[in-house]
């Protein structure tokens, strides 16, 4: 005879009919498991204590899954197991009656039961599966039995209404993500015997204001309290030796940390973005400070490195905007501080210059041969840095974000410049690279928006991806003979670059290498035709002439893909001269491209043709004077010259190309000559609404103006 629950004997509720269930019998225990709930329209369910004379002992996996009408469920005394996903997605379930015989709740058993507000777990419970109450966003309280030794992965994750939690005294392990993303959680009581807090256990609990320290704690997992933006103070327990990666990442209100003397390692980004952390006393037995450990602690003004520290990772103190000094114990054998700047013990590597120092200039000591990764990154006060002659290596991001650094002389024997080493140096105007460099690493000068001149060494072989991307002031680049490879987006967004001459050594130009170089007019390849990605010159709207050593079938194929709207010439055909920043054919009869910004320009006598796109997007051009003898103006020749106000063409002009003045939004008058003049429907498209075209009476120009419905007057 099975045991009877006294509560069930007193209840007036009747069990649901047997027709509402499918069940199976366990041959070993002779117990019944509810395999499937059939009445999907039912709002309540009372599971009988017996079926066919056998006790109900289990709810099988997925038995009530997605029973979205169910608002209450009562399990009989005798049920020992609730299987995985048993009540998953029962979105209306608000009342849950669990028996004192229950020992196991499977993984995701009540996941996404979004109406459930409170749960009392019976004292008999021994196992609470992963994600058991995941996403129960209305759950306000949970009563945990004192015998529970482990809470699994993501068990109460995303329970947005849960405000307080008292964990049972028997608990030894709180698994990863157990209470992550509980938006209303304000307090947690941790048991004294707790040994493990798993990764992300309380991550993104923005209301959590305190975190007690169990003295028995041995492991605090990765990102355990990351994103707890209300957490104000932390005291680390004495047995904790390692603080894992991102343990308190982004705890922006954290202002006090009490370290225990047992701590040996502070993990990567452990306190990164703790923007209220103003002061620290590191433990005297600390051995390792990992990469980015205190990165972006913007209130931190000073730090003292104990004698026992043997390792400091890259970017450990990057973006600490208030940091004015990094001091080191005189007994430390690995590191040394000189005037608040962090070096290795031998003063051969400069590791970190404090961001908060207000000096405008700094001279790196003559003993230094290497500037470490991010050593000067985001130091905005410096306008000038003096580097020693013996410097050999500049690390990754070494000077990135030094936005006021205007002058810099690189030593002649410098061997390497690390990735993005000068990226974001917005005030840097010119740089001469030493003759020892063979590779220019990715993003080296990315976003150096004032960089107008760069001298590349003859030893250079490779320009990597993004090396000069968004260097908007760069007008010319002399590529040395020896450069073989130009990487992805290497010069992308160099909006002032007007012409390119590729030496014979160039073998490949990668995707989008010159993307968006809208002022670019000509590209000339002086050697064998290289490999050019189809998108290498995408959105170079002003580019109209590309010249190859020989116009071979390969050259024509590359031109059709990478330069689809350009004139393709051989070097013999493309003989040029430059006068006053304007490119002409060798005989002076064709104006090919305007290479410098101009407000007014007089086209020289002898010019018969203004080539396609010659003044494309010359936005500063206000006036242009044409010579007698001009015969043709090419397609899009003045496209986008939106400051141009008026044009007057000489007699003898034969054609004005399609889109020649398209987008000249300030153009108010155009005076056309007599004769057999051709121009297109879009020649004066998108010009000022009050544009008036002046034409000789009875001329071809008058007929075309009328056909194209232009505003015109005869003379």
Overall mean pLDDT: 93
- The end-to-end distance, rounded to whole angstroms, is 118 Å
Shape: extended
As residue ranges, the low-confidence spans are 1-12
* Distinct helical segment count: 3
Strand residue percentage: 15-25%
User: How many DSSP-defined strands?
Assistant: 60
Computed structural class:
mainly beta
CA radius of gyration: 38 Å
How much helix, percentage-wise, in residues? under 10%
Major β-sheet profile = 7 strands, mixed
Secondary-structure topology with pairs:
Layout: H1 6-10, E1 21-25, E2 32-37, E3 44-46, E4 50-51, E5 54-59, E6 72-74, E7 81-82, E8 95-97, E9 104-105, E10 118-120, E11 127-128, E12 141-143, E13 150-151, E14 164-166, E15 173-174, E16 187-189, E17 196-197, E18 210-211, E19 219-220, E20 233-235, E21 242-243, E22 256-258, E23 265-266, E24 288-289, E25 302-305, E26 311-312, E27 325-328, E28 335-338, E29 341-344, E30 349-352, E31 361-363, E32 370-371, E33 384-386, E34 393-394, E35 407-408, E36 416-417, E37 430-432, E38 439-440, E39 453-455, E40 462-463, E41 485-486, E42 499-502, E43 508-509, E44 522-525, E45 531-532, E46 545-548, H2 553-562, E47 567-570, E48 576-579, E49 582-585, E50 590-594, E51 600-602, E52 609-610, E53 623-625, E54 632-633, E55 646-648, E56 655-656, E57 669-671, E58 678-679, E59 692-695, H3 700-707, E60 712-714
């Amino acid at each position: 005879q099975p045991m009877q629950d006294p509560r069930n004997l007193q209840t007036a509720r009747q069990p649901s009919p047997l027709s509402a269930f499918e069940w199976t019998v366990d041959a070993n225990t002779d117990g019944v498991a509810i395999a499937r709930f059939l009445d999907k329209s039912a709002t309540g369910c009372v599971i009988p204590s017996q079926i066919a004379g056998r006790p109900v002992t289990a709810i099988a996996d997925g038995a009530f899954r997605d029973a979205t009408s169910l608002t209450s469920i009562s399990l009989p005394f005798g049920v020992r197991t609730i299987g995985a996903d048993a009540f998953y997605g029962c979105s209306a379930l608000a009342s849950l009656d669990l028996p004192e015989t229950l020992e196991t709740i499977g993984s995701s058993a009540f996941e996404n039961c979004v109406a459930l507000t409170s749960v009392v777990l019976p004292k008999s419970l021994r196992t609470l599966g992963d994600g058991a109450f995941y996403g129960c966003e209305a759950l306000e309280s949970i009563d945990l039995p004192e015998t529970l030794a482990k809470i699994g992965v993501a068990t109460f994750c995303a329970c947005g209404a849960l405000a307080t939690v008292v964990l049972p005294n028997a608990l030894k392990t709180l698994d990863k993500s157990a209470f992550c993303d509980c938006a209303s959680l304000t307090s947690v009581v941790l048991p004294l015997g707790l040994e493990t807090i798993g990764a992300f256990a309380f991550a993104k609990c923005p209301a959590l204001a305190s975190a007690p320290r169990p003295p028995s704690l041995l492991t605090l997992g990765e990102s355990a309290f990351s994103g707890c933006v209300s957490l104000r103070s932390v005291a680390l327990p004495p047995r904790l030796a390692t603080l894992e990666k991102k343990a308190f990442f982004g705890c922006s209100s954290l202002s006090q940390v009490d370290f225990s003397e047992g701590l040996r390692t502070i993990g990567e980004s452990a306190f990164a973005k703790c923007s209220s952390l103003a002061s620290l006393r590191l433990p005297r037995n600390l051995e390792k400070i990992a990469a980015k450990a205190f990165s972006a602690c913007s209130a931190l003004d000073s730090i003292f490195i104990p004698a026992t520290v043997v390792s400091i990772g890259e970017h450990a103190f990057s973006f600490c905007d208030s940091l004015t000094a990094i001091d080191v114990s005189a007994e430390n054998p690995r590191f040394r501080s000189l005037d608040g700047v962090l070096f290795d013990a031998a003063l051969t590597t400069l590791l970190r210059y404090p961001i908060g120092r207000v000096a405008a200039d700094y001279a790196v000591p003559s003993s230094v041969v290497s500037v470490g990764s991010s050593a000067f990154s985001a130091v905005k006060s410096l306008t000038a840095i003096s580097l020693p002659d013996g410097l050999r290596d500049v690390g990754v991001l070494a000077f990135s974000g030094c936005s006021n650094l205007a002058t810099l002389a690189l030593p002649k024997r410098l061997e390497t410049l690390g990735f993005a080493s000068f990226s974001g140096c917005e005030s840097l105007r010119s740089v001469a690279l030493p003759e020892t460099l063979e590779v220019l690493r990715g993003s080296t000068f990315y976003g150096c928006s004032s960089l107008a001149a760069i001298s590349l060494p003859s030893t250079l072989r490779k320009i990597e991806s993004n090396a000069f991307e968004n260097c908007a002031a760069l007008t010319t680049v002399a590529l040395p003979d020896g450069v073989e490879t130009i990487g992805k987006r290497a010069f992308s967004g160099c909006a002032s670059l007007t012409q390119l001459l590729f030496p014979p050594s160039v073998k490949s130009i990668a995707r989008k290498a010159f993307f968006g170089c809208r002022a670019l007019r000509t590209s000339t390849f002086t050697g064998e035709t290289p490999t050019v990605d189809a998108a290498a010159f995408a959105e170079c709207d002003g580019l109209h002439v590309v010249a190859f050593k020989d116009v071979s079938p390969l050259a024509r194929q590359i031109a059709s893909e990478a330069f689809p709207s350009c004139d393709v010439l051989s070097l013999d055909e493309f003989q040029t001269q430059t006068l006053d920043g304007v490119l002409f054919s060798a005989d002076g009869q064709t104006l090919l491209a305007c290479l410098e910004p101009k407000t007014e320009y007089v086209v020289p006598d002898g010019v018969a043709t203004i080539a396609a796109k010659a003044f494309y997007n010359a936005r500063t051009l206000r006036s242009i004077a044409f010579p007698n003898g001009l015969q043709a103006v090419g397609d899009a020749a003045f496209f986008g010259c939106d400051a141009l106000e008026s044009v007057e063409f000489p007699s003898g002009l034969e054609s004005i190309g399609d889109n020649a003045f398209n987008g000249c939004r300030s153009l108010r008058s155009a005076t056309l000559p007599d004769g057999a003049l051709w121009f297109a429907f879009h020649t004066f498209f998108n010009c000022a609404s009050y544009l008036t075209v002046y034409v000789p009476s009875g001329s071809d120009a008058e007929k075309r103006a009328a056909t194209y419905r232009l505003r015109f007057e005869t003379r």
